[in-house]
Amino acid sequence: MADAPHNGRRRPPPPPAIGSIQDAPAGWENNLEAIELARFAVAEHNAKANALLEFETLVKARQQLVAGFMHYFTIEVKEGGVKKLFEAKVWVKTWENFKGLVEFKPAA
């Protein structure tokens, strides 16, 4: 009963279990922070692979509580005018001001 009132307030949902991959909160695909992380993933991939992918939209977001958060994104990009889907993993440790692209690959 995470939503049951408690002293006139709603209880927050329980934190994600450490290590489990879970869907991001509803609407996270439209959140500016999530979109910026997805754009970062595309830019990092382009720099490392000498590619020219263009970010289109963040399709799906999941997250995992690790030492920070591992974000799992499904991203729609354009490559030479053709839309394609890619999966990206971005690791964020805010207390260290760190974010890094862990994986970027075509969606299965």
From TrEMBL:
One of its GO terms (biological process) is defense response. Keywords: Plant defense, Protease inhibitor, Thiol protease inhibitor. Residues 16-107 form the Cystatin domain. Residues 1-23 are annotated as: Disordered. GO terms for molecular function: cysteine-type endopeptidase inhibitor activity. It comes from the Eukaryota. The keyword Cell inner membrane does not apply. Pfam families: SQAPI (PF16845). PANTHER family: CYSTATIN FAMILY MEMBER (PTHR11413), CYSTEINE PROTEINASE INHIBITOR 2 (PTHR11413:SF104). Belongs to the cystatin family. Phytocystatin subfamily. This is Cysteine proteinase inhibitor.
